[in-house]
């Protein structure tokens, strides 16, 4: 199996960005990818950098909605399991940072909503987003069971553990991480590799690229394997389609030798995540 991380830069308008993203899907399919993941809010200006501007609520859309339906059609056309990220309007006054997961036949398998909501300079997310209410769904796709950790979710080991216990073999991380978050840059690979090895899964991180408003996104997308190894990483902070091999048999191999999940002791330290 191959997974593609689309290190993508917003190109000025939603329609143009979606058109380019669908072109990238064709490229990924040509390179043999089975799964593609796009960064957080890849098709829009990263509006959470603007503090408390209610006009941006007009940008939200339902799931399924115009963006999801376009990518469902493209996923079926190119035979790609596709994970995107949109600003979701779930009901009157209810808004989420959400990732639809689309199977290779175009079927909407499910939606993961960001559970942990940041609030810091450049990331004024608590004004715009409700805390996610989906829990930790594992989406059963033609490329295997996939979990999602959206941006800030990746800092919580419990998130990855819950997905792994739910059967996820690949966790994809759509993110929008910028040079303004130097503390996060310092632990960029460390925490993801730790999550991969602690749960003996693959983790694929797709970060935004380029300058968007006041934020410079640093790219550095990569894929980590179940032994903590880096399978592949992007070259730098520019746009890049990173296509990496994911050998799902490697999970079985690692877990036979180091059975971390078997040896969990929730009887000693509390209940398992649900």
From TrEMBL:
What SUPFAM superfamilies does its record include? Carbon-nitrogen hydrolase
Q: Which GO terms describe its molecular function?
A: hydrolase activity, acting on carbon-nitrogen (but not peptide) bonds, in linear amides
Pfam families per UniProt: CN_hydrolase
Entry's transmembrane regions: none
Checking InterPro entries in the record gives:
Aliph_Amidase/BUP, C-N_Hydrolase, C-N_Hydrolase_sf
Q: Which domain of life is it from?
A: Bacteria
Which residue intervals define the domain CN hydrolase in the entry?
1-248
- Report keywords, A-Z: Hydrolase
Q: This chain belongs to which protein, by name?
A: Carbon-nitrogen hydrolase family protein
């Amino acid at each position: 199996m191959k997974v593609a991380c689309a290190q993508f830069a917003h190109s000025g308008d939603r329609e143009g960005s979606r058109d380019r993203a669908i072109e990238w899907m064709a490229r990924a399919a040509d390179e043999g990818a089975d799964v593609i993941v796009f960064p957080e809010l890849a098709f829009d200006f990263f509006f959470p950098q603007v503090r408390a501007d209610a006009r941006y609520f007009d940008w939200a859309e339902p799931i399924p909605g115009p963006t999801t339906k376009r990518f469902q059609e493209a996923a079926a056309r190119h035979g790609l399991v596709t994970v995107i990220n949109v600003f979701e309007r779930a009901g009157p006054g209810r808004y989420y940072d959400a990732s639809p997961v689309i199977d290779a036949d175009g079927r909407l398998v499910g939606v993961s909503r960001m559970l942990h909501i940041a609030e810091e300079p450049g990331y004024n997310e608590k004004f715009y987003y409700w805390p996610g209410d989906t829990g930790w769904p594992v989406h059963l796709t033609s490329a295997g069971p996939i979990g999602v950790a959206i941006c800030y979710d990746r800092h919580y080991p419990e998130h990855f553990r819950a997905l792994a216990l739910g059967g996820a073999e690949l966790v994809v991380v759509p993110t929008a991480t910028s040079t303004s978050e130097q503390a996060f840059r310092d632990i960029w690979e460390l925490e993801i590799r730790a999550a991969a090895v602690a749960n003996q899964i693959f983790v694929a991180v797709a970060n935004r690229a380029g300058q968007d408003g006041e934020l410079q996104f640093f790219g550095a997308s990569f894929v980590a394997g179940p032994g903590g190894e880096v399978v592949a990483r992007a070259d730098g902070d520019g746009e890049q389609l990173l296509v990496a091999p994911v050998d799902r048999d490697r999970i079985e191999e690692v877990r036979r030798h180091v059975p971390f999940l078997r040896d969990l002791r929730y009887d000693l330290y509390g209940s398992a995540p649900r």
